[in-house]
Design brief:
The chain is an alpha+beta fold. It contains four helices and five strands.
């Protein structure tokens, strides 16, 4: 055990930290793994154990402090290009058959959709332009 250099142990620690990163998908383990690699580099340059540990802690904490807020900000953003039913929300449609609170038909994005009025007391007649406010299953909610 004493014949193995410290940098090898740091690389083993980095690999060991990579396993829970893959299994749990928690990026913090990856940041700790990068800190262990930095400590291995410090060990390779001949730094003593205290400096290696300081390098590990400083690099790991710096990565967590910088990367986590950026990742959280990106995770909170909605995709700029909507697809699927999200792309249909807010679009205009033309009423094909009378639409009220019970149902009806509209032409939305070149396709015929079943539709229901958001305001159940309101009815829309054929030919009217309406706005799609939501999609519930295969039914467009209009107003």
């Amino acid at each position: 055990m004493n014949d193995i250099d410290a940098w090898v142990w740091w690389l083993v620690a980095a690999a060991a930290l990579g396993i829970p990163l893959v299994v749990t998908a928690m990026p913090e383990f990856g940041m700790f793994a990068v800190g262990a690699v930095a400590a291995a580099v410090a060990s390779g340059f001949g730094a003593d154990l205290v400096v290696q540990i300081l390098v590990f802690v400083i690099v790991s904490v710096a990565l967590i402090a910088v990367v986590r807020p950026v990742a959280a900000r990106h995770r909170a953003q909605r995709p700029q290009l909507a697809s699927g039913v999200d792309a249909l929300k807010g679009r205009q449609a033309v009423v094909l058959e009378r639409v009220d609170g019970a149902g009806g038909r509209i032409k939305l994005a070149g396709e015929t959709w079943s539709a229901r009025a958001l305001d159940t007391a309101r009815a829309y007649e054929a030919g009217e332009e309406v706005d799609v406010v939501d999609i519930e299953g295969a039914t467009a909610i209009i107003m």
